[in-house]
Design goal:
Order of helices and strands: EHHEEHHEHHHHEHEHEHEHEEHHHHH
Shape: elongated
Number of domains: 3
CATH topology of the largest domain: Beta Polymerase, domain 2
CATH class of the largest domain: Alpha Beta
Low-confidence stretches: 415-421
CATH superfamily of the largest domain: Glutamyl-tRNA reductase, N-terminal domain
Oligomer: single chain
Length: 421
């Protein structure tokens, strides 16, 4: 069974490339359906900083098929994508996914959000009935590994999030958020974290807005602040010193004209905009507006490196757990190579056993039912003992595919489907 992972993330590609492959919830179903049409087994993972495709099958998937698929998602040609896409096979693919789920591959080491994103991708794929074994086992194990890392290490203790790092950037630029007004544009998980971080930083007036006003109201009631209708976004920006956006949208929500009109209502006051959405929802041309300071996800990298250095020791512990889990999973994966051979071997031996008993027992008229049951049990035990050596051999260390092939040839499983009597 072959396994391959291909994708790009914040290590390999700039934001302007990553955002072309970003998928919202609404797009996931269509993208998974398109993948299922192209490969034997496939799974998508799209988080704020990565989009990856996991493929499994009896034969190695043609790379041309994956390049064509990634191109269809992004609108970029294979030649344009190639410099940014990494490819992992077998153990490296497993290791990569486990590190992602553990928060070791995140911009903010130890973040909790990515584990939830992996879990939700798994749940969506299962709901669509598009994730058969063994990929389903791979992603279930990834979620379990992520939980284990967080329970056995302190990597996520007081962990930062991209939202809290965005607030740290604001504090670095402003010096202090006390007395400042802030606006959060999102009622999703990242928006909730941003609202919490802004309030904790001491901003005295915090507003939240979203296309889903009921969610914004719920968060405002839960954490503090106030919810404003989404159609008052421009008015909210006119009041704010800091705006953090993390909504998903297939187009820009904030454009230069809107920002200019907001600034016209509050002259002489600069406006800090931090866009941590992927794809970006603030038009990059907004940076050209006088009085505006615009930052995006890639501008947070330096602050994230500080967090990475602080968690180095816990990251090493988490990496050791990941390596342990990779070994465990690959042993299970290897077993998939030999299961058909073991099943054929057992079925063939059982067929011979039953055939011999069917010819022998009718001639033994004096046998009681108890005697017949004893003979039945004895022949089953005999078959188990005779099969122990070839089954142990095929499960042994080394090239399991070669071992399985040898057993199939010795017992002529390919020719007859059962061992020779």
């Amino acid at each position: 069974m072959h396994l391959l992972a291909a994708g790009l993330n914040h290590h390999s590609a700039p934001l302007e490339i990553r955002e072309k492959l970003a998928l919202g919830k609404e797009q996931f179903q269509e993208a998974m359906g398109a993948l299922a049409e192209r490969v034997e087994q496939g799974m998508l993972l799209s988080t704020c900083n990565r989009t990856e495709v996991y493929v499994a099958g009896a034969a190695a998937p043609p790379m041309g098929t994956l390049w064509e698929y990634l191109s269809s998602l992004s609108g970029l040609s294979a030649a344009e994508l190639e410099p940014y896409v990494y490819v992992h096979t077998r153990d490296e693919a497993v290791r990569h996914l486990f590190r992602v789920s553990a928060g070791l591959d995140s911009m903010v080491i130890g973040e909790f959000e990515v584990l939830g994103q992996v879990r939700r991708a798994l749940e969506q794929a299962e709901h669509l009935k598009l994730l058969p074994m063994p990929l389903r086992r791979l992603f279930k194990d990834a979620v379990r590994v992520g939980r284990r890392v967080r329970s056995e290490t302190a990597i996520s203790q007081d962990a930062a999030s991209l939202s809290s790092v965005a607030v740290s950037l604001a504090r670095k630029l402003f010096g202090d958020l006390r007395g400042r007004k802030a606006l959060v544009v999102s009622a999703g998980e990242a928006g909730e974290l941003a609202l919490e971080a802004v309030i904790k930083a001491g901003a005295f007036d915090v507003a939240i807005t979203s296309r889903f006003h009921d969610k914004a109201e719920r968060l405002a009631n839960l954490l503090g602040g106030r919810a404003i209708p989404y159609d008052q976004l421009e008015a909210g920006m006119a009041e704010a010193d800091l705006v953090i956006t993390s909504s998903y949208a297939p187009h820009f929500l904030v454009r230069p004209a809107m920002v200019k009109q907001a600034l016209a209502q509050r002259p002489q006051r600069p406006l800090l905009l931090i866009d941590i959405a992927v794809p970006r929802v603030i038009d990059p041309e907004v940076a050209e507006v006088h009085g505006v300071h615009l930052h995006d996800l890639d501008d947070l990298k330096d602050l994230c490196e500080t967090n990475r250095a602080r968690r180095h020791g816990e990251a090493e512990k988490a990496s050791a757990i990941v390596e342990d889990e990779v070994v465990r999973f690959t042993k299970w994966w290897d077993s998939l190579e030999v299961v058909p051979t073991i099943v054929a071997l057992r079925e063939g031996a059982e067929s011979v056993r039953k055939a011999k008993l069917a010819r022998t027992l009718p001639r033994l008229h004096s046998l009681s039912e108890e005697d017949r049951a004893s003979i039945e049990a004895m022949t089953r035990s005999l078959v188990d003992k005779l099969l122990h050596v070839p089954i142990s051999y095929v499960k042994g260390n080394g090239d399991v595919a070669r071992r399985a092939e040898i057993v199939r040839q010795v017992f002529k499983l390919e020719e007859k489907g059962d061992p020779s009597p």
